[in-house]
Structures are given as C-alpha cells and as structure tokens.
Amino acid sequence: MRQIDYYLTVVSPWTYLVGNRAVEIAAAHGAQLRYKPVDPSALFARTGGLMLNERHESRRAYRLQELRRQSKKSGLPFNIQPAFFPTNPAPAAYAIIAAQEAGGGDIHALVQSLTRACWAEDKNVAEDEVITAALKDAGFNPGLAMSGMLTGAEIYGRNLEDAVAAGVFGFPFFVVDGTEHFWGQDRMDDLNLYLAGEL
Question: Does residue 89 have a cis bond before it (omega within 30 degrees)?
Fold first, then answer.
C-alpha cells in the first residue's frame, strides 16, 4: 500500500482549504493517509521560512488576495481574518495525534472540524472545549484532549524531526512513499495524477 504522509497545522488556512481532497485522493488510489501535525514556528525556523508577522508587507498582501481567490474556488465557508488567529496550534495537534494513535473514530473528520473551527467558525482551537467537542463529533473519546497530551507532545516533536528530514518546509505538505513531494493545497491535482502514474 502506498503511504502519504500529510504534514499540517490546523492554523494554516491552506490546510483548511484542502477540504476533503486529500482523503478522497488517497481512497481513490488505495493509499494510506497519515496525518503528521507539525509546529509551524519550529519548522520555519529550521527550514528558512518566516512566520506571517515577519514577512514583508507585499507578501502579506498577496496572501490575502490568494486566500480570497482560493477560498472562493474551494466553495468552503471561509473567514479571511478569523477572530482567533494566530493561536497556539499545539493542543489541537496533540488531540489529532492522540486520536490517530487511539483509533475508533474518523480522523479526517477531526482534522476538518479543527481547521474549520479556526477558519470558518471563529473558534479558538487552543481551547479545551473546542478540542473536546471536535473529538466527540468525530467519534473519539473527548477525554483524549487530556489523556493524550503526553503521547501527543512526544510525537509532535518527532513529527518536526521527520518533517525536516523529509524536506518539508510549509503547509500543507504531502510526501508519497518518502520520496515525492507536493506542497500546497493547489497541488492536489498533481498528487492525484502522480498516484495515477500520469506524472
């Protein structure tokens, strides 16, 4: 079975705009999709990137235009300037990791719920009540928000090292079978074509 490592952070609008496409593409090609949340500030520090507030004004202005265009193309509800951004992505990341390790629910629904909470529902994804509600709605034990913290924190750190070793430098980032790289929600068609043997 082919493996797609999906490096993400719930506070990336581009991760939210992936929508259902990653899981649909993986299913269409019989591939396993593995979610790997990563600390964005740590990744950027290790790979030469800049956090949003450190970027030149021209880059920030272009980002807003591109978000407006891409969100409209996606058809997803989207708030270009959400009430709780930036916020700490670690608690949500720990919950995703703990849920994926525990199993028994819909991990894709959980990721979508948390990214949607940030980018469409004006909720703070660093708050326990937002995380526990997302876990419950996706069929997981909401207690994972607390009981999974140690596991989540440990794997979160490993995911950063895996990301750097794999050549990941932004979000969303997909690595197929450890070799082929796709960066950005606008590369989903290329990911699909690659898995189909057409690229």
Answer: no
* Mean pLDDT value of segment 83-105: 97
Angle subtended by helix axes 40-47 and 149-166, to nearest 10: 20
Q: In 3D, which of 95, 84, 88 has the Cα closest to residue 126?
A: 88
The CATH class of 3-195 is alpha beta
In sequence order, what are the beta bridge partners of 182?
A: 174
| Domain layout of the chain by residue ranges | 3-195
**pLDDT tens per residue across span 126-155:** 999 999 999 999 999 999 999 999 999 999
CA 104 – CA 71 distance, rounded (Å): 31
